[in-house]
Amino acid sequence: MLPCGPAFLTGMPGWSEILIILVVLLLLFGTRLPTVMRSLGKGVSEFKKGLKDVEDDATGKPDAKGGGPVASAPPRPTDDGPKDGSNK
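-> structure tokens emitted (88 positions)
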């Protein structure tokens, strides 16, 4: 059984320890941090755009370009007549 109360919480880092860890991480990965954040932001925006597209498809709303849901073209009739050019 896990102990409850203050004895259980003594192993968790406090604010000062978290701040020290963040400073160390910033020193180690500071040069790559802008590119990581940029790619993370692009990923989040793509996710939101994809989620909006799915919601629009589910509700049948037209997309932002002004067009509605794209209807497929009707099937073209096939010519099952003779291939030699004769009209039998």
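Residues 14-59 form one domain.
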